[in-house]
Write a structure and sequence with these properties.
The protein has 494 residues and is of the alpha/beta class. The chain has helices at 18-29, 43-49, 67-79, 98-103, 113-121, 128-133, 135-148, 152-162, 172-184, 194-207, 224-233, 252-260, 277-280, 296-308, 339-344, 350-356, 373-384, 394-400, 408-422, 427-437, 452-470, 475-482, 486-493, and strands at 6-10, 34-37, 55-59, 83-88, 106-108, 214-217, 242-246, 261-262, 274-275, 285-289, 310-312, 324-326, 330-335, 359-362.
Length: 494
């Protein structure tokens, strides 16, 4: 397949999809162009990676990121005789050097970015209806970029807009992504630190194997259910149900009825037959949260279902043709407990542990990827759609980053809700008041971040050593607990 000669770099969309709209207009002028979304911070990186094009058009992306890196990337493209054009409704930042500005051949027209693109490229705007028709796909494309490191969807969505197409033109994969985005938008795994990128890489890998059982490990509030949802919606099981069940806080009888379902008249009050969670999740995914709290008696029931691949409803025992059903369910279990210790103490069945622990994936505590706090906070804030408030400012984000969050992402979300409820715009004051209310018992001040890579490297190394120590120095067990390869453990144990 012939490589496109023109690359269109558009910003990532806020509400209204102005960047996607503008990229679709540019496609009218360059129908064979490749389209990519890019943030202002990563524009220099995107330009460095742009090889083999004769023309690059930048649509509305602020000239941000490292100014020196931006200058070097632009200079290299000029030397390679690549034609550059930057189109915007706002003038470039004063931090951009004169040589870089001239090389980018800026076209600035006040008003909207769409108007600037039309004036610069000589096209007419008749795409508003197509933008609206493709809005769900465009929003899903932003999710795919942030969470899945997949930018291909954005270009495909923009092409639908440029052609004036609607949802009838979406591919099966695009429809599936929109459904997944609808389910996952409220609980994304945000963050671009290496540890979070590795978590998402593992989830994508495991999603390709929809029969494999996964055990999610990690502290409370680290996003285990979000990871389970992502596993389900990226897998071939996504068109069937994702059924969550909390294994803590209910008595044995209620949990067994939830597992097995019941026939009419099975017990007092059973006025009609009801399927259990295994039947509801047939063909899909059953998420067993807090599996370490499951009573031993129910562990035996779960093990039997997993071994036999069928479930018998309460009240259906011994009744031919009644109650028993075959089920095809992927199990994703989660716990913040040390299951191996529970096995040694006789509180968790060893045979069930190995049934559930085909692959273990550990969700990192927020303090282990503290460099993601600004991105996570902004994402949580934006999804809250809080009336009368603007996006978080630098000072607010800096104040949030000064707390250790023993409750992880869930605690960060609660702190943001506290800010909104109290209408507190001074986040330094907010965090101080919150810590005082807790008796200052939770947070640990992280050290001021030096270089992100240096800080993260040390955090990862310390954590691997702790896990290795808990596993008695056994590299294989430590790798299984961490959800990484033996080579990764060997790399960081030194």
């Amino acid at each position: 397949m012939k490589r496109a000669e023109t690359l269109l770099l558009a910003g990532w969309d806020a509400e209204g999809h102005p960047y996607a709209h503008s990229a679709a207009l540019a496609l009218l002028a360059f129908p064979d162009a490749e389209v990519r979304g890019v943030s202002k911070a990563r524009l220099p990186e995107a330009l460095e990676a742009a090889k083999g094009y004769t023309r690059i058009v930048i649509l509305g992306v602020s000239l941000g990121g490292d100014p020196q890196r931006l200058a070097r990337s632009v200079s290299a493209l000029v030397q390679a005789k690549v034609a550059l054009r930057w189109i915007s409704a706002l003038p470039p930042s004063a931090s951009v050097g004169d040589a870089t500005r001239r090389a980018l051949s800026p076209f600035v027209r006040e008003g909207s970015l769409q108007e600037a693109v039309c004036a610069c490229l000589g096209v007419e705007d008749g795409l508003a209806r197509a933008v609206t028709a493709n809005a769900p796909l465009l929003e899903a494309a932003g999710y795919a970029h942030r969470t899945l490191e997949d930018d291909a969807v954005f270009g495909a969505a923009v092409r639908h807009v440029a052609r004036g197409e609607g949802q009838e033109a979406w591919s099966a994969d695009e429809r599936a992504l929109v459904r997944s985005h609808g389910a996952l938008a409220g609980a994304p795994l945000t963050g671009h630190s290496p540890v979070m990128q590795e978590v998402r890489r593992m989830i994508r890998q495991l999603a390709r194997h929809p029969e494999v059982r996964v055990l999610l490990l990690g502290e409370s509030g680290t996003g285990k259910e979000a990871a389970a949802l992502m596993l389900h919606h990226l897998s071939a099981r996504r068109d069937n149900e994702f059924v969550p069940l909390n294994c803590a806080g209910s008595n044995l009888q209620l949990l067994e009825a939830a597992f097995r379902g019941h026939e009419k008249g099975a017990f007092t009050g059973a006025s009609e037959a009801r399927p259990g969670v295994f039947e509801r999740a047939d063909g899909g995914t059953l998420f067993l949260d807090e599996v370490g709290e499951m009573p031993l008696e129910l562990q035996a029931t779960l093990l039997r279902i997993l071994q036999e691949g069928r479930v018998t409803r309460l009240g259906g025992e011994g009744r031919k043709g009644v109650g028993e059903r075959r089920v095809d369910v992927r199990i994703v279990a989660a716990t913040n407990r040390d299951l191996l210790r529970l096995v040694r103490e006789g509180r968790f069945r060893e045979d069930l542990f190995y049934r559930l622990n085909t692959v273990a994936l550990r969700m990192p505590a927020l303090r282990e990827h503290a460099e993601d706090i600004p991105e996570i906070a902004r994402d949580l804030w934006a999804r809250g759609r809080r009336d009368g408030w603007r996006a978080l400012g630098r000072a607010q984000v800096a104040a949030l980053a000064g707390y250790g969050y023993p409750g992880n992402v869930r605690e960060l979300a609660n702190l943001l809700e506290r800010a909104y409820a109290l209408d507190e715009r001074d986040f330094g004051k907010l965090v101080a008041g919150y810590r005082e209310a807790l008796g200052d018992g939770g947070g640990v001040e992280p050290a001021p971040p030096p270089g992100p890579s240096e800080r993260l490297e040390e955090v990862v190394r310390q954590h691997v050593r702790r896990v290795l120590e808990r596993q008695g120095g056994n590299v294989s067990r430590a790798a299984a607990a961490l959800g990484v390869s033996r080579n990764t453990v060997l790399k960081y144990r030194r």
